[in-house]
From TrEMBL:
This is Photosystem II stability/assembly factor-like uncharacterized protein. InterPro entries: WD40/YVTN_repeat-like_dom_sf, Xyloglucanase_GH74. It comes from the Bacteria. Coiled coil: none annotated. Signal peptide: none annotated.
């Protein structure tokens, strides 16, 4: 079984493939090397894989590109990707998230400004999810240092009407009626940047990333601006699980593809430094849903003064699972044994903003 890995950067996207159990990698790229690529997606539904890249040109604006031959050739979506309808006074600046839906044709896109678009024809055309854009709280959402964007979209694996999403800085929202209505789901998440007594608002938290396992969709894991959390009721309430980490600040969180109690985070400093504690690259893994944590650093560098962004970590579905980390110094590290050991598989790319991997038949 082969593997494909996409790395989106501030100057294009690269595609890596491995046909020997992830021992060696062949890389193609850059594609769209004058564009910022904040979102990529490997769609393994249907007869053959389709690669997506959400690229933003400073001259032409954002565009979703797709490839049906693992990056050999690319074509743009017919209408240019997600665009606001004529009656909305806004324009899409970046595409921060591309996510497959639970069926074989749905694709979601999360954008800046904060909106979600949905395609029902596997990325050919996108329509604005009006129920979220028209939400009465939308005008009060803030913008983190990276901008205001829906960076997390988690369709329920069995209920096509249920989607959980997150935005910086607005928090977690959820729909159970196909996007017609949305409710804030932030109870227990601390907004540490607010004054004492106001740090647990209904919405407005700076959520960095949310993930879940398809076999246990009611359980969510969340990396906040400060704090790592778990919800066992699909976001109805959240419990802090950051004890035992060297820092509870970070951007990324991913769950093991076969073990819903196993998750990975990449802690970084919560101040202005934005690099790992002591300048050492370390992934931390929990095997008990966040009750305890263990350091996973064999093969990772000890001199590492760069960050890993919210979509800079991912897994594949092999057994043993692969885990991947892309960093802002242009390096990508891979573990073919679920985080036990690591090695660098490509270096000297531009800032890596997003990595996505998939096992191919």
């Amino acid at each position: 079984m082969s593997t494909v890995l996409m790395a989106g950067t501030r100057k294009g996207v690269w595609v890596g493939t491995s046909d020997d159990a992830r021992e060696s990698w062949a890389w193609k790229g850059p594609f769209f090397d004058v564009d910022q690529v904040y979102s990529v997606m490997v769609d393994t539904r249907g007869g053959k894989p389709r690669l997506f890249a959400g690229a933003a040109s400073m001259w032409l604006g954002p565009q979703v590109h797709r490839s049906d031959d693992l990056g050999e050739t690319w074509e743009a979506t017919p209408n240019g990707g997600p665009t606001f309808p004529d009656d909305v006074d806004a324009s899409v600046e970046r595409i921060w998230q591309l996510q497959p839906g639970p069926d074989e044709t749905t694709v979601y896109a999360g954008t800046e400004p904060g909106a979600i678009f949905r395609s029902r024809d596997r990325g050919e055309h996108f329509e604005l999810v009006r129920g979220l854009w028209d939400h009465p709280q939308r005008t009060e959402w803030g913008a983190g240092f990276g901008g205001q964007a829906f960076h997390t979209i988690l369709p329920h694996p069995t209920d096509p009407d249920s989607v959980t999403a997150a935005i910086s800085t607005g928090g977690v929202y959820q729909t159970r009626d196909g996007g017609e209505s949305w409710s804030a789901r932030n109870q227990g998440i601390r907004a540490e940047f607010l004054p004492e007594g106001q740090q647990y608002p209904e919405f407005g938290q700076c959520v960095h990333k949310v993930t879940r396992h398809p076999s246990r969709p009611e359980r969510l894991y969340l990396q906040n601006h400060g704090g790592v959390y778990r919800s066992d009721d699909e976001g109805g309430s959240w419990d802090y699980i950051g004890d035992g980490l060297p820092s509870d600040f970070g951007f990324s969180v991913v769950v093991h593809p076969h073990e819903p109690d196993t998750l990975f985070v990449f802690p970084i400093g919560g101040g202005a430094n934005r690099y790992p504690p002591e300048g050492k690259a370390r992934v931390y893994r929990s095997r008990d849903a966040g009750a305890t944590w263990e350091e996973s650093g064999t093969g990772l560098p000890h001199h590492f003064f760069v960050g890993v962004m919210r979509d800079g970590m991912c897994t594949d579905t092999h057994d043993p699972a692969g885990v991947y980390v892309g960093a802002r110094n242009g390096s990508v590290y891979a573990s073919a044994d679920a985080g036990e050991t690591w090695r660098e598989i490509v270096r000297d790319l531009p800032d890596v903003m997003v990595v996505r991997a998939a096992a191919l038949a």
